[in-house]
């Protein structure tokens, strides 16, 4: 909101406040100067407030009923979703355990023997290199 619009809005609020104050003063003067109509207006106001309270209470009961229905609906819809999610998590857990077992099996039966053979081959190769270097130095 730019400055001229804000200024107009403030003037409008001040005008509305002044009108409300003037009306309240006028009503107070009228009610003070005429006590008999004031009693009638008071009684009518009490009846209107009582009816309004009853209506608000009924609306509150309706809102509570709707909220209860919403909670029940959510409970019926969410429970199957949670059960399905639980099944999915169990399936994923089983898959992870199977993969762990497979990795352990492959490591024990394939990788470890290959590493062993490779280390023996490397040891033999190193030994041959050392022996050939030693023979080369003796012949010199």
Tags for this model:
0% strand; elongated; 97% helix; single chain
The string of secondary-structure elements, in order, is HH
How many distinct helices?
2
Task: Give the distance, in angstroms, between the N- and C-terminal Cα atoms.
Answer: 100 Å
Instruction: Characterize the main sheet.
Output: none
- Provide the helix percentage: over 70%
- Could you name the ranges where pLDDT drops below 50 across 5 or more consecutive residues? none
Instruction: Give a count of the beta strands, DSSP E runs of length 2 or more.
Output: 0
Quickly give the structural class.
Answer: mainly alpha
Beta-strand fraction estimate:
under 5%
Radius of gyration: 46 Å
- Mean pLDDT across every amino acid position: 89
What coarse outline follows from CA principal-axis ratios? elongated
């Amino acid at each position: 909101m730019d400055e001229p619009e804000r200024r107009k809005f403030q003037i409008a609020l001040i005008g509305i406040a002044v009108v409300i104050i003037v009306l309240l003063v006028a009503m107070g003067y009228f009610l003070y100067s005429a006590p008999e109509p004031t009693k009638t207006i008071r009684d009518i106001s009490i009846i209107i407030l009582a009816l309004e309270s009853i209506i608000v209470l009924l609306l509150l009961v309706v809102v509570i009923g709707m909220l209860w229905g919403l909670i029940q609906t959510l409970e019926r819809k969410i429970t199957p979703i949670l059960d399905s999610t639980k099944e999915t998590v169990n399936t994923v857990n089983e898959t992870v355990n199977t993969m762990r077992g497979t990795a352990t099996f492959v490591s024990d039966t394939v990788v470890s023997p290959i590493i062993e053979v490779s280390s023996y081959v490397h040891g033999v190769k190193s030994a041959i290199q050392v022996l050939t270097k030693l023979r080369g130095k003796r012949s010199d």
